[in-house]
Amino acid sequence: MRARLLLLVCVLAVALLLVIRSIQTAKLATESPASNTSLSRAGASSTSASSSGAAQSPESAPTKVYAHNLLLRKGPSFRVYVRWLNGQLVRAHSNVNPSFDDPDSFFLDIKTGVLRANIGDLSNFLNAGGVADSPLKKIVLSGDGDQIKLTGTLHKLIPLPIELTGTIAAVPDNRIQIHVTKLDVLKVPFKALLGGLHISVADLFHPKGIPGIQVTGNDIFFDTQKLLPPPHIRGQLTSVRVVNPDLEEIYGNAQGAVERVEQWRNFIRLSDGSLDFGKLTMHHVDLIMIDISKDAWFDLDLANYQTQLVNGYTRMTPQAGLQIFMPDLRDIPQNKATQNISIEWLRNRNIPPPADVTPKAR
Questions:
Q1: pLDDT confidence tier of residue 64, bands split at 50, 70 and 90
Q2: Is pTM, for the whole model, over 0.90?
Q3: Total number of domains in the chain
Q4: SS3 letters for the chain?
Q5: Domain that holds residue 192
């Protein structure tokens, strides 16, 4: 009897263990996909975060730029007058730092800004090769407000003096549009000559087109990013007009900022990212260049900025930033020689330091 009872208890115990094991197996099978999914999501999130971190590393991030009353020379014969600018220096190539020595190495992305270009400079630039393949030569620009006039000589069979008038405006794709309202040839209305000479607005430019210029009917569109020399400027262009003797471009809502900084000194300030200038590379950029002249504009010549640096003076901030006080290029004497620290001076403490160093050391 006892043997039968013991056997029954053993059978019941084995059956109970099998039931418990079956329930646990089913539970694990149900939870496993969810756990794997969670892990996969976590891994994907981690990978995404890692990739995002690599893309947004401090050294490759854009460099913020602020400027006030900056005269920026773009090439030997073109100047841009920056009344106010809030934007970024953005790498043109992902693995190349923006460099003052290579204007093609970065784009100037403007968030808000007011920029002007002298109309005479624009005319000279177009005649010097800005529209080298155009049959239109001897270009002269003028205008007022949204009205603009262009005169020149059109080479079509024979040289023909032409005069074009139109309205100028900014269009949504950040180009400048000139809508031609009148085109005179030899002081005779355009329509009277249309049948004989077959001249249209498109005839003013090369039939294969010129980079940065597009003609559609009586409209001429200018893409300044492609047409003008580097550094190339991008941004949301909200207004363009003629304010003699300049062509004015407004990016974003900049009027309030212009009024607020009216009494500020002339400067350009850069922060974050990386920047090359000369033999130096600055990471986590913290740099301000300040005009020490009393001119209305801070003349920064990218082709000769190192001469301005040499003839200015520099000091380091407690945060390891740089403050550079710079003269205008035209204020530097042509025959001024910069004295270098020689090995003889290092070897003899009785020799006074160079004259141009002593005032800065006081």
A1: very high
A2: no
A3: 2
A4: CHHHHHHHHHHHHHHHHHHHHHHHHHHHHHHHHHHHHHHHHHHHHHHHHHHHHHHCCCCCCCEEEEEEEEEEECCCCCEEEEEEEEEEEEECCCCCCCECCEHHHEEEEEEEEEEEEEHHHHHHHHHHHHCCCCCEEEEEEEEEECEEEEEEEEEECEEEEEEEEEEEEECCCCCEEEEEEEEEECCEEHHHHHHHHCCCHHHHCCCCCECCEEEECCEEEECHHHHCCCCEEEECEEEEEEECCEEEEEECCCHHHHHHCCCCCCEEEEECCEEEECCEEEECCEEEEEECCCCCCEEEECCCHHHHHHCCEEEECCCCCEEEEECCHHHCCCCCCCCCCCHHHHHCCCCCCCCCCHHHHC
A5: 118-231
